[in-house]
Amino acid sequence: MLGNFSYHNPTKLYFGDESLNFLKDELKNFGPVVLLNYGSGSVKRNGIYDQVVAILNEAGKTVIENPGVMSNPTLEKLNEGVKIARDNNVDLILALGGGSVCDYSKAVAASVFCDGDYWDKFWLKQEQPAADQRLLPVACVLTMAGTGSEMNAGTVITDAEHNFKVGHVFDDRLMPKFSILNPKFTMTVPDNQMKAGIYDIMNHIMEQYFSDFDDNTSDYLSEGLMRSLITASRIAVKNPQDYEARSNIMWTATWALNTLIGCGKHEDWMVHMIGHSVGAWTHAPHGYCLASVSMAYYKRAMKEGLPKFVRFAKNVWNIGGDGMTDEQIAEAGLAALKDWMLEIGLPLTIGELGATAEMIPGITSTTVVYPAGYLNLKPEDITDILTESL
Ligand code: NZQ
Ligand code: ZN
User: Fold this and answer.
1) Which residues of 216-253 are buried (b: 16+ CB within 10 A; e: fewer)?
2) How far apart are the CA of 212 and the centre of ligand 1, in A?
3) Ligand 1, pocket-test mutation among 156, 181, 259, 269, most atoms within 8 A of CB
4) How far apart are CA 230 and CA 228, in angstroms?
5) Apex CA 283: angle with CA 146 and CA 300, to 5°?
6) DSSP E strands: which ranges in the chain?
7) Can you tell me the distance from the alpha carbon of 275 to that of 270, in angstroms, rounded to the nearest whole number?
């Protein structure tokens, strides 16, 4: 392990089918006004909203509701949330939903007391809040497994007017104070979103794993997480009500992106950069956007990162490799990945998401490109990857 790093994750987790019981006690640590952010209504249909509101009422909180946080939350909706928080002297922001609601809640928390243009400062210029800026505390009751937003400081926001989707990872002051993870809450997630979440988790691990060549404990942890996810996903797509599989997926999602397996790694994230841009143009679920460009991307990365792709084939996909060249082993690993993606039911092309050849110049121009992982892509390479993925 050759890198230098610090590791600090302050988010407290409550996990399991009884985890919501801990909300009441946690609420004692915060002031009386709670901004409750949630999405387009799934939490009302499945009854989670009623359970959470009952606990908030019992705890004597004044609840300010902010519904309608859309999947892939927009800058316009962020502005609305900031105004609500400013007008109501909010003490705690409670996110009730998936990654979009959690991300959004952190974005509001960072922006409420920001002097000036928070969009420009945090997302366009990628600055951190000033050391003395007040930040509202955020907590999450998670209803969907995938992003890891429940235990990280990431916030992805879309400027819908300009088809520009951009993430900002805040410093650890913005990590949720606590998150409640009840795998039962994920049982009503629609089939396509469950699958998108599964690939999002897989790709988070791959983005961190496919960088560097040193012997690093983080990579062994990544391999274990990928193996667990592959096993659990195969069970969950056949029987979405399998609690054991859904709980393993939920727990793997959290560890896939809570900064642990990035320790000592340079990390990649170019599949996410291209995927975000595909998402801004097609509005497809985040994990589907990643899946649709992955094969073309990793075929390229394999050439530069061959030893790691050989290791991926052997340690994640159990490719024996006897009598095979390194290239053949690595290719067999990618073929196994592709077979698994097909088995899960993931899209393998951007065409399946509604992207067209005419959109490719626009998708390319809104993709943030930087040297990462094993590749140093130029915009024309992004165009080639998108064309191959069509
Ligand atoms: O709108 P609601 O009613 O909440 O419905 C949601 C939404 O339609 C629904 N859903 C969630 N839980 C449900 C449920 N439906 C029924 N029962 C439940 N229990 O599922 C749909 C998708 O939800 P969403 O929150 O959008 O999905 P996800 O968790 O995948 O979050 C995606 C967002 O997270 C960002 C993505 O870019 C995207 O904007 N990401 C955040 C990251 C981070 N913080 O580190 C990293 C990721 O790479 C990702 O970029
Ligand atoms: Zn992701």
Assistant:
1) bebbebbbbbbebbbebbeebbeebebeebbbbbbbbb
2) 30
3) 156
4) 6
5) 70
6) 12-15, 33-38, 62-66, 92-97, 138-142, 154-159, 164-169, 178-181
7) 8
Tell me which residues have their CB closer than 6 angstroms to ligand 1: 39-42, 46, 71-72, 97-101, 103, 143-144, 146-149, 152, 154, 156, 167, 185-186, 188-190, 193, 197, 200, 257, 272, 286
**Ligand number nearest to the C-alpha of 167:** 1
94 with 24: CB under 8 angstroms? no
User: Rounded to the nearest whole angstrom, what is the distance from the C-alpha of residue 330 to the centroid of ligand 1?
Assistant: 32
Residue 73's pLDDT is what?
Answer: 97
Q: Output the CA 63–ligand 2 centroid distance in Å.
A: 30
Q: Which atom of ligand 1 is nearest to the CA of 106?
A: 44
| Dihedral over alpha carbons 260, 265, 271, 275 (to 10 degrees) | 40
Q: How far is the CA of 77 from the centre of ligand 1 (A)?
A: 15
DSSP annotation of 129 reads P
The pLDDT tens digits for 27-64 are 999 999 999 999 999 999 999 999 999 999 999 999 99
pLDDT tens string 65-106:
999 999 999 999 999 999 999 999 999 999 999 999 999 999
Q: Is the pLDDT of residue 3 over 90?
A: no
Q: Which residue, by CA, sits nearest to atom 22 of ligand 1?
A: 71
What is the dihedral angle through the alpha carbons of 238, 241, 242, 247, rounded to the nearest 10 degrees? Answer: 120
User: Which atom in ligand 1 lies closest to the alpha carbon of residue 197?
Assistant: 30
**Nearest CA among 255, 252, 282 for reference residue 71:** 282
DSSP structural state of residue 357: G
> Which among 347, 354, 360 is positioned nearest to 388, based on CA atoms?
360
Q: How long is the chain?
A: 390
Torsions phi, psi for 301 (to 5 deg): -65, -30
pLDDT band, residue 352 (cuts 50/70/90): very high
